[in-house]
Design goal:
CATH topology: HIT family, subunit A
Radius of gyration: 14 Å
Bound molecules: guanosine-5'-monophosphate, zinc ion
Number of helices: 3
Mean pLDDT: 97
Order of helices and strands: HEEEHEHE
Number of domains: 1
């Protein structure tokens, strides 16, 4: 998508602090971190949000979560844990319409969210 911020990050047109990259996913630090650790994992394929996935995307969604935890564990958050969040559309608080998993760690997070 030409006007998608995250597609531009994937293409290198917008700089980012990359943590991980393979053929399917890119992970990078959030520009406005809400915790000492706050990174995003995104599929390289433009998918607007989790509601716009199909049965055929089930494997990708599983790998998105698996990759998220592997990166968090690799950064040393396996012991204390982290939060894995996917916001969706207006009521879910999504502001960038390219599917992404937030990973937040390094402080004790509250529940429920505001
Ligand atoms: P959402 O609100 O859609 O779940 O999360 C979007 C996230 O993307 C926000 O946490 C926001 O700080 C982050 N973000 C927006 N634009 C950029 C950018 O250009 N670079 C990076 N690294 N993060 C961004
Ligand atoms: Zn995109």
């Amino acid at each position: 998508m030409d006007d998608c911020i995250f597609c531009k990050i994937i293409k290198g047109e917008i700089p980012s602090k990359k943590i991980f990259e393979d053929d399917e996913f890119l992970a990078f630090h959030d520009v406005n971190p809400q915790a000492p650790l706050h990174f995003l994992v995104i599929p390289k394929r433009h998918i607007p949000n989790i509601m716009e996935t199909a049965e055929a995307d089930a494997g990708l969604l599983g790998r998105l979560l698996f990759r998220s935890q592997k990166i968090a564990a690799g950064l040393g958050f396996g012991e204390k844990g982290a939060r894995f969040v996917i916001n969706c559309k207006a009521d879910g608080g999504q502001t960038v319409d390219h599917l992404h998993c937030h990973v937040l760690g390094g402080r004790s997070l509250q529940w429920p969210p505001g």
